Automatic annotation (TrEMBL):
The keyword Hydrolase applies. InterPro entries: Isochorismatase-like_dom (IPR000868), Isochorismatase-like_hydrls (IPR050272), Isochorismatase-like_sf (IPR036380). Residues 38-112 form the Isochorismatase-like domain. Transmembrane segments: none annotated. Keywords: Hydrolase. Belongs to the isochorismatase family. Pfam families: Isochorismatase. PANTHER family: FAMILY HYDROLASE, PUTATIVE (AFU_ORTHOLOGUE AFUA_2G08700)-RELATED, PEROXYUREIDOACRYLATE/UREIDOACRYLATE AMIDOHYDROLASE-RELATED. It comes from the Eukaryota. GO terms for molecular function: hydrolase activity. It comes from Dacryopinax primogenitus (strain DJM 731). This is Isochorismatase-like domain-containing protein.
Length: 141
């Protein structure tokens, strides 16, 4: 972290650097949502985005009475997994959006998150089905 990637990218994973923007079209959509007041950007400084009480994300969720979280991102077995486990431990309902989660880790890393997402009281769905909870899969043990 912090390695200089050249003038076209800046420092690796540093707030405000070019490489910390969202991927092309997603950045554009975020900017539109920000102007409309529907999207917020909450920075994190650990693998998990919600590693404990009173983190910026947890404060935002509490303030807006949000209890169900739809997760996407990279890397599945690092940041996404850490965030999912921590959010679940804090009492949030979890929905892993399978086709919006990726990883650069070896085979099996993402599959492990998907496997556990339907066996630990979480839900698993695909992005086109996320708005219709009846199309999400869940298994309670």
């Amino acid at each position: 972290f912090g390695a200089y990637l050249g003038p076209e990218h800046g420092k690796l994973l540093f707030r405000g650097e070019l490489n910390s923007d969202l991927y092309g079209p997603l950045q554009t959509e975020y900017e539109k949502g920000k102007l409309a007041g529907t999207d917020v950007w909450i920075h994190k400084d650990r693998m998990s985005g919600i590693w404990g009480r009173n983190t910026p994300l947890e404060e935002h969720l509490t303030k807006h009475n949000i209890k169900t979280l739809f997760w996407s991102g990279v890397n599945a077995d690092q940041c996404v997994l850490g965030s999912v486990v921590d959010a679940y431990s804090l009492g949030y309902d979890i929905v892993a959006v399978e086709d919006t989660i990726a990883t650069t880790s070896p085979t099996g890393a993402k599959e492990n998150l998907m496997y556990n997402s339907i066996r630990v009281g979480h839900f698993l769905c695909r992005s086109q089905n996320a708005a219709d909870s009846s199309l999400c899969r869940a298994m309670a043990l």
